[in-house]
Amino acid sequence: MEEEKMNLRLDALKKRLSENQKEKWELENKVTELEGSLHRHRNQNSVVELRASLNRIEEMKEKNRRVRSNIVELRDPDRVLGS
Asked: Which residue spans adopt a coiled-coil conformation according to this UniProt entry (predicted)?
């Protein structure tokens, strides 16, 4: 009788161990999937930030061209006087 209880308990423990190992494997796979997703999102965010920076640089270049053009016009007395 005591041996039967021990065997039942051992079977239950083996079943729990098997279930826990399966859950651990599933969680490890989920972590791997989430790490990949995080990596893709970080890369995507970097691309978005780089594009925004490039747009700001292009805007600043255009402003710089306009300022330089105005400076050239101010330095040319004939243009200022309209001659």
From this structure: 3-70
